Amino acid sequence: MQGLMMHGALTLGAILDRAERITPGSAVVSRGSDRAVHRGTYGELAPRARRLAAGLRDLGVPADARVATLMWNQREHLEAYYGVPARGAVVHTLNPRLSPAELAHIADHAEDEAIIVDASLLEVLGAVRSRRDFRHVIVAGGDAPHGTIAYEDLLATEDPGAPPVAQDDELAAAVLCYTSGTTGNPKGVLYSHRSLVLHAMGLAMADSFAIGEADTVLPVVPMFHVNAWGLPFACPMTGAGLVLPGRFLDAQSLLELLTAERVTFTAGVPTVWLALLERLDEAPGTHDLSALRCMLVGGSAAPMGLIEAFERRHGLYVLQGWGMTEMCPVGSIGRLPVAMADAPAEDRLAYRARQGQPVPFVEIRARHEGGAVPWDGATMGELEVRGPTVASAYLGGEGADRFTDDGWFRTGDIVTIDPTGCIEITDREKDLIKSGGEWISSVALENALMAHPSVAEAAVIAVPDPRWQERPLACVVVRPGHAPTPEELRERLSADFPSWWLPDRVEFVDEIPRTATGKFKKSVLRDRFAGGGAP
Ligand code: AMP
After folding, report:
1. Ligand 1 centroid distance, CA of 264 (Å)
2. Marked catalytic residue, from 170, 261, 326, 446
3. Which of 439, 468, 507, 515 is catalytic?
4. Is residue 341 part of a domain?
5. Pocket of ligand 1 contains residue 325 by CB under 6 Å
6. How many Å lie between the centroid of ligand 1 and the Cα of residue 178?
7. What DSSP letter does each residue of 143-196 carry, written as one string?
8. 298 touches ligand 1 (CB under 6 Å)
9. 176, 191, 206: which is the final residue of a domain?
10. Does the Cβ of 411 fall within 6 Å of ligand 1?
């Protein structure tokens, strides 16, 4: 027997309609590339998004086309998030930090028809266009050079009526984002309206980010990186205000906005928060962050020291989230379970430094060669996930080996899962070190090294070894004014790890190379120190 309820389509259009009707006054504050701050509202966002949809239609951009964006976290990008899908087309967010060759490759693969670019990124686009052109180039946030279309002109062409395409197919594609390529070539993840709406609802829940109308949210995480973790959908859905920092992501600029706009919730990768922490430590008490109730950290493991330092020295609460491009992206959240409320402080901190429990409707399991791994908090296996916010395939069918025959997605993260379902990432599959048949967690070694007062950053890689197959090698960036010896660092590690885990070699380097989304790029270190021979 079927239920007798209506089938309301879960679409981005429905989110925008609600924002316009129910919370039209909620603020959208956006910093332009000239640093000027623009103050708008959801009441203004909605008609502008519809004008964009109509403008794209008048330009001849077909429904179903891919429309790329090369933009910062700015109001026009938010308009594209809603306006392009309102045309029936797919927003393809491009990461300006990729090389022109990578961008051209991705745009080709996606068959991008048009691109909306911020004027400050025209030079980046110029380098791409010599390899791959777009039928229409639309320029926002500044002057449009000859041969391009001014964004505001496009919006001026049409009276904003209903969206050009009926918004009733929740399974239609809305957004496209490519993986950051830490594992091989970037692959396209094509989010449906439904997956984005369900993800936004998951984020807003009390035990997730608890986002509501009273919030003012500043996503530092770029809108070109997995939908800025879904915040541009969760905020209009709930009526929370948005503060978009543009291209100014340095600690001082962020502090200015966080204090001036009385931001309550912000989200970014550990590197951003480490820089902010340094700034706060330099001048404690000079910034009024009393409105800030939560700083979300994700994208890479949050060092325990970071969580502790913000809390102890500045009274700021850091919450960790884990996710992937293939998951919209949030998969788990490191909120402390009620049962641990009275646990000793160090246990609570250790728990929060893990990746946390899965959000509702994300199922998890871990497997290794021998099959399913028990949820004992000790046995390592590769994490697999499934659910309505998880990709079922990559665009073009590549990477099919990441999808299991029984319908799960292989994350490539090596984890333990404890009896409460709390995930702890111990490594990436390709970064795992297998010494004499036993696994060594490079992440655990890195965290321990980074807790040393002389160490700014550390990455641990596998190098081939004739006897043990692989052995760990630590690449260490030293803090200015410090000069630790390899013996001293090993000595420190020996307090926490068995002797066979200790890196045989320690290399001091100027910096750890990073991907365009700020993750350690260990392949470069492997090429340099291990002859590229490690897995
Ligand atoms: P991306 O698809 O670029 O967002 O990268 C996803 C990968 O980033 C995951 O598979 C993890 O390896 C890593 N990652 C994301 N969040 C975290 C986190 N909180 N802790 C550790 N690793 C993370």
Report:
1. 24
2. 326
3. 439
4. yes
5. yes
6. 14
7. PPPTTSEEHHHHHHTS---S-SS----TTSEEEEEE---SSSS--EEEEEHHHH
8. yes
9. 191
10. yes
CB 289 within 8 A of CB 316: yes
Whether 466 and 420 share a structural domain: no
Q: What is the amino acid identity at position 521?
A: K
Tell the residue nearest (CA) to atom 7 of ligand 1: 324
Q: How many residues does the chain have?
A: 535
The residue whose CA is least distant from atom 15 of ligand 1 is 299
* Ligand 1 contact, 517 CB (< 6 A): yes
Residue 117 parent element (H or E)? strand 112-118
413 Cα: distance to centroid of ligand 1 (angstroms): 8
348 DSSP assignment: H
> Which CATH number goes with the domain that contains 510?
3.30.300.30
333 and 349 belong to one structural domain: yes
330 CA to centre of ligand 1 in angstroms: 10
Helices 75-86, 12-22: crossing angle, 10 deg rounding:
120
Structural domain boundaries, residue 375: 248-426
CATH number at residue 47: 3.40.50.12780
User: Is 1 part of any domain?
Assistant: no
Catalytic residue among 256, 259, 311, 434: 434
The DSSP string of 28-76 is EEEE-TTSPEEEEEHHHHHHHHHHHHHHHHHHTPPTT-EEEEE--BSHH
**pLDDT tens per residue across span 104-148:** 999 999 999 999 999 999 999 999 999 999 999 999 999 999 999
Number of domains in the chain: 3
pLDDT band at 184 (very low <50, low <70, confident <90, very high): low
DSSP assigned state of 430: G
The response to whether residue 413 sits with its C-beta less than 6 Å from ligand 1 reads yes
The question of whether 326 is a catalytic residue gets the answer yes
Match 């009620």 to its residue by tokens.
338
> 381-386 and 363-368 as β-strands: parallel, antiparallel, unpaired?
antiparallel
Residue 428 beta carbon below 6 angstroms from any ligand 1 atom: yes
Q: Which of 191, 222, 257 is the last residue of a domain?
A: 191
Q: Which two tokens stand for residue 372?
A: 């399913």
Amino acid at 30: S
* d(CA 522, ligand 1 centre) in Å: 14
Structure tokens at 154: 């496009």
Q: What is the largest CA-CA distance in the chain?
A: 73
* Cα–Cα distance list, 128 to 116, 162, 182, 247, 325 (Å): 14, 35, 22, 20, 23
What confidence tens digit (pLDDT) does each residue in 428-482 have? 887 888 887 778 889 889 989 998 999 999 999 999 888 888 899 999 999 999 9
Would you call 86 helix, strand, or coil by DSSP? helix
CA 254 / ligand 1 centre spacing (Å): 23
